[in-house]
C-alpha cells in the first residue's frame, strides 16, 4: 500500500495551486535542491574532474536506468539513460530497421507525437529514401500490421486524448508477421504500470521529465530486449557507447549489451535531480498508483460533467483505455486554459482544441480534483476565458 499523502509532501507545490500538468512537466521533488547543491559544491566544486570516478557520475546512466526499469517492467541491465527522447527514438528505430533489412515499412499512427514522426522521416532521408513511413488512424493500427512492416513505432498513450494502445496485443500482432515493436513510453512511464518484458516489446524509449519528475531537460531512457541487446548496431555510435571509451581507438567497437546505446556525456546535474524523484518512486506500489489514478480520473470526469456539461470528453470513457490524463474538446480551449492558470489550476492546451489535465496520485488529492472541476465550471459557464489577455498565444501552450 502506498501512502500518497506522504509522497505529496515530498514535492514542492506552490500554495493554492492545483497542478494538473505533470503529463507535460512534473513538479520538483523537495529533495532536489539539496541534492543539486551537493552535486555542484561537494562534487563538481570540490572533486572537479575526479567526480566522474569518486562521485559515480559515469555509472549514473546504468544505475538510474535500472531504477526506471523497475517502473516499466524491464529486465535488470536492459535500460540506460542519456540524451533526449528524440535521439533515443532515432537510435531504436535505426536499430530495429537494421534487424529487418528486407522490409521497408515503418508503421505509425496519426496520434503519435510529431517528434517521433520527424525522427522517422529524417532517418528515412538519411537511408536514401528507400523506406516508407506509413501513418494510419490509431484504431486502424492492428489491421495495418502486415508482412511488409519492419517495425511498428507507436506511442502507447496519445499525447492529446490520452487514448491508450494495447501494448502486448499489438506487439504480438507485429511479431506474428515477423515485425518488431518499438514503443514510446513518454506518457506511460510513471503514469501506470508498464511491463515491457511481459509485453514482449523489442525496444522502448521514454522521457523522465513528465510523470517521473526529473525536471526540465531531464534525460531520456532506452530499453532493448535481451534477445537484441548484444546484436543491435547503434546508428549513433557515440564515444560512451564504445567498448573501451578511454582506449581512444579510432574505430568503433560497441560496448556489451545496453551500454552500446549510450551516446554522449551524461547530464550529471539533471541526473542528480532525477535521482531524488526516483527516491520517491521507490516508495510507490504501481498497482496502488493505478487504482488511485482511476479513482481520481473517474471523479474528475464526473465532476467536470456536472460543472461544465458543455465540454466534450476527448479521452476514452473506459479508464483501462486511457493513460493518466483526461482531455476535453473546447473551441476556445487555449484561452480557457489561460484563465484556469490565472485561477491557479494548471493544465495545458494542444491544438486545435484539446484541454489536457494530468491525473497524478503522487501529489494530487480528491480535494484537488474537486476544486479543479469547480474552477473549470466557473471559467466556462461565466466565459472568464473571453478576454484578449487569455487569447494571446505564448511560445509554449
Automatic annotation (TrEMBL):
Gene3D superfamilies linked to this entry: Aspartate Aminotransferase, domain 1, Type I PLP-dependent aspartate aminotransferase-like (Major domain)
Cofactor names: pyridoxal 5'-phosphate
Enzyme's top EC category: hydrolase
Recorded catalytic activity of this chain's protein: 3-hydroxy-L-kynurenine + H2O = 3-hydroxyanthranilate + L-alanine + H(+); L-kynurenine + H2O = anthranilate + L-alanine + H(+)
EC number annotated for this UniProt entry: 3.7.1.3
GO annotation terms (biological process): anthranilate metabolic process; L-kynurenine catabolic process; L-tryptophan catabolic process to kynurenine; NAD+ biosynthetic process; quinolinate biosynthetic process
Modified residues (N6-(pyridoxal phosphate)lysine): 210
One GO CC annotation: cytoplasm
NCBIfam families cross-referenced by the UniProt entry: kynureninase
Quaternary state and interactors: Homodimer.
Family: Belongs to the kynureninase family.
Function: Catalyzes the cleavage of L-kynurenine (L-Kyn) and L-3-hydroxykynurenine (L-3OHKyn) into anthranilic acid (AA) and 3-hydroxyanthranilic acid (3-OHAA), respectively.
Protein name: Kynureninase
Originating species: Poseidonocella pacifica
Lineage: Bacteria, Pseudomonadati, Pseudomonadota, Alphaproteobacteria, Rhodobacterales
Amino acid at each position: 500500500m502506498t501512502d500518497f499523502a506522504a509522497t505529496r509532501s515530498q514535492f514542492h507545490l506552490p500554495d493554492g495551486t492545483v497542478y494538473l500538468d505533470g503529463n507535460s512537466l512534473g513538479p520538483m521533488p523537495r529533495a532536489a535542491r539539496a541534492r543539486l547543491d551537493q552535486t555542484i559544491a561537494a562534487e563538481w566544486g570540490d572533486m572537479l574532474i575526479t567526480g566522474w570516478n569518486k562521485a559515480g557520475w559515469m555509472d549514473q546512466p546504468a544505475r538510474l536506468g535500472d531504477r526506471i526499469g523497475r517502473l516499466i517492467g524491464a529486465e535488470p541491465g536492459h535500460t540506460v539513460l542519456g540524451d533526449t527522447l528524440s535521439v533515443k527514438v532515432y537510435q531504436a528505430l535505426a536499430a530495429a530497421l537494421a534487424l529487418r533489412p528486407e522490409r521497408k515499412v515503418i508503421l505509425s499512427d496519426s496520434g503519435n507525437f510529431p517528434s517521433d514522426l520527424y525522427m522517422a522521416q529524417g532517418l528515412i532521408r538519411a537511408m536514401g529514401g528507400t523506406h516508407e513511413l506509413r501513418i494510419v488512424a490509431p484504431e486502424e493500427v492492428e489491421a495495418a500490421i502486415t508482412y511488409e512492416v519492419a517495425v511498428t513505432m507507436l506511442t502507447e498513450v496519445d499525447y492529446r486524448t490520452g487514448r491508450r494502445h494495447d501494448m502486448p496485443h499489438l506487439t504480438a500482432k507485429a511479431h506474428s508477421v515477423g515485425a518488431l515493436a518499438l514503443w514510446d513510453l513518454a506518457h506511460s512511464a510513471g503514469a501506470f504500470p508498464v511491463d515491457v518484458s511481459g509485453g514482449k516489446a523489442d525496444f522502448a524509449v521514454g522521457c523522465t521529465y513528465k510523470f517521473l519528475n526529473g525536471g526540465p531537460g531531464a534525460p531520456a531512457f532506452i530499453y532493448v530486449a535481451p534477445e537484441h541487446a548484444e546484436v543491435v548496431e547503434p546508428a549513433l555510435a557515440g564515444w560512451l557507447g564504445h567498448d573501451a571509451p578511454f582506449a581512444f581507438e579510432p574505430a568503433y567497437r560497441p560496448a556489451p549489451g545496453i551500454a552500446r546505446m549510450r551516446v554522449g556525456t551524461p547530464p550529471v546535474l539533471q541526473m542528480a535531480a532525477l535521482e531524488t524523484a526516483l527516491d520517491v518512486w521507490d516508495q510507490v506500489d504501481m498497482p496502488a498508483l493505478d487504482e488511485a489514478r482511476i479513482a481520481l480520473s473517474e471523479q474528475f470526469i464526473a465532476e467536470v460533467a456536472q460543472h461544465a456539461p458543455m465540454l466534450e470528453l476527448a479521452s476514452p470513457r473506459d479508464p483501462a483505455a486511457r493513460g493518466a490524463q483526461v482531455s476535453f474538446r473546447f473551441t476556445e480551449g487555449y484561452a480557457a486554459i489561460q484563465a484556469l492558470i490565472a485561477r491557479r489550476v494548471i493544465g495545458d492546451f494542444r491544438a486545435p482544441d484539446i484541454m489536457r489535465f494530468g491525473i497524478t496520485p503522487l501529489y494530487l488529492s480528491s480535494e484537488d480534483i474537486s476544486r479543479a472541476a469547480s474552477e473549470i465550471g466557473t471559467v466556462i459557464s461565466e466565459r472568464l476565458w473571453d478576454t484578449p489577455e487569455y487569447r494571446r498565444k505564448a511560445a509554449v501552450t
